[in-house]
Amino acid sequence: MEIITTIGSLRSRLRQQPSIAFVPTMGGLHDGHLALIRAARQKTGFVVASIFVNRLQFLPTEDFDRYPRTLEEDCRLLQNHHADVVFAPGEKDLYPALQEFLVDPPSMADTLEGEFRPGFFRGVSTIVLKLFNIVGPQVAVFGKKDYQQLHILREMVKQLNLPIEILAADTVRAPDGLALSSRNRYLAPEERCQAPRLYQTLRQLGQEIKSGNTSFRELEENGTAVLDRHGWKVDYVAVRDQNTFAPAQAGNERVVVLGAARLGKTRLIDNLEV
């Protein structure tokens, strides 16, 4: 496995590579990330992973400075899982000057995550497009845990006519159901015991929907109330159409139940396809 830190060196390394699967990450790797590497490996014979904590997608009040930076351990894990190249640039490599050209996603990006993290998807879309231009992959792998992000990046690739297949990998969970996340390490022990309740709540709503309940607004309110009662600070519980991300309506064949809430100082997100 090679570790490359500059754009020029990476492009030189990849110039003759006929097929590339790409897994962009911000590091702090866990089994969820490694599942993406395995999915990439199944698609092509050559896998590139990037590690870069992207300032553009953090609000001033968020955890950019304390976000886990564990490059040495991350590289060890990637080598064990047979990544071929790790691209680990510095901030000056990807942003040598003030980034004034930004990807402005559609209005859907201002809902749910975008409502509570203004500018988040603009930052994500911008860095992902930059990385796509640098790496030139044929396949890019993203996890379903960041469901709205996955939807937006699929639309970006489609509308900008990028020759890239977006592959979605299922969320990897701890035995108690908690979706794996780099931010889970922020949870205090008592919070970690409480953390699976978010997914449990989404599963309960999913069972209601499978049973024929299409009172989606009421279901959203019920899910919020359950989390409120157990001390969570809820940003949203929402039911959306999987294909359009519009609010779900009776007759939608495939919906997704999404939730985001704070447990102590840690913000957790999760979702369930129905």
Summary of the model, kept short:
This protein is of the alpha/beta class. The protein has helices at 7-14, 31-43, 71-80, 91-94, 113-116, 120-135, 147-159, 189-194, 197-210, 216-229; strands at residues 2-4, 21-25, 47-51, 85-87, 139-143, 165-169, 233-241, 255-263, 266-273. The chain has two domains: 2-169, 3-Layer(aba) Sandwich (Rossmann fold); 182-269, Pantoate-beta-alanine ligase, C-terminal domain (Pantoate--beta-alanine Ligase, Chain: A,domain 2, 2-Layer Sandwich), CATH 3.30.1300.
- Rg over CA atoms, rounded to whole Å, is 19 Å
Total strand segments: 9
H-E string: EHEHEHEHHHEHEHHHEEE
Strand content: 15-25%
List keywords for this structure.
single chain; 274 residues; alpha/beta; Rossmann fold; Pantoate--beta-alanine Ligase, Chain: A,domain 2; 6-stranded parallel β-sheet; 3-stranded antiparallel β-sheet; 10 helices; globular
Task: Characterize the structure shown.
With 274 residues, the protein is of the alpha/beta class. The chain has two domains: 2-169, HUPs (Rossmann fold), CATH 3.40.50; 182-269, Pantoate-beta-alanine ligase, C-terminal domain (Pantoate--beta-alanine Ligase, Chain: A,domain 2). The protein has ten helices and nine strands. It has helices at 7-14, 31-43, 71-80, 91-94, 113-116, 120-135, 147-159, 189-194, 197-210, 216-229, and strands at 2-4, 21-25, 47-51, 85-87, 139-143, 165-169, 233-241, 255-263, 266-273. The strands form two sheets. It has a six-stranded parallel sheet with strand order 1-4-3-2-5-6, with helices on both faces. Strands 7-8-9 form a three-stranded antiparallel sheet. Strand 3 (47-51), helix 3 and strand 4 form a beta-alpha-beta unit. Helix 6 (120-135) packs across helix 7 and helix 9 (197-210) packs antiparallel against helix 10 (216-229). The model has no long low-confidence stretch (mean pLDDT 97).
